[in-house]
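User: Structure please.
Assistant: Input sequence and predicted structure:
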Amino acid sequence: MLGYVTLGTNDLPRAAKFYDAVAGEMGVGRMMEFDQFIAWGEAGGAPGIAATKPFDGNEATVGNGTMAALMVDSTDKVQAVYDAALANGGTDEGAPGPRGDDGFYAGYFRDPDGNKLNVFTMTK
């Protein structure tokens, strides 16, 4: 069972602004915060997401093929989270819409450090 996803950042204040907006649209806020690490979510709730400066002190880099998927409960919420991401320094990787015919509805974006995320819901 997934507990949380951690993504590296080279600029924690910038990442904090981005994830505060994205998490806020999902109805959650910060649940843990240290000098080098912030986690968003709800303790005991669904898996959370965190931004951290790498423990080894090296530059954070983006994983090729790595993506975190954020689940919400409606297509309107997919749009709201996607819009918040782009309004707070994120970049488009695929506008919200249906993907295939199995009820998967998602929008894709990258955070300001280049980490790829999606926000999705199931419509069927």
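Helices lie at 12-25, 75-87.
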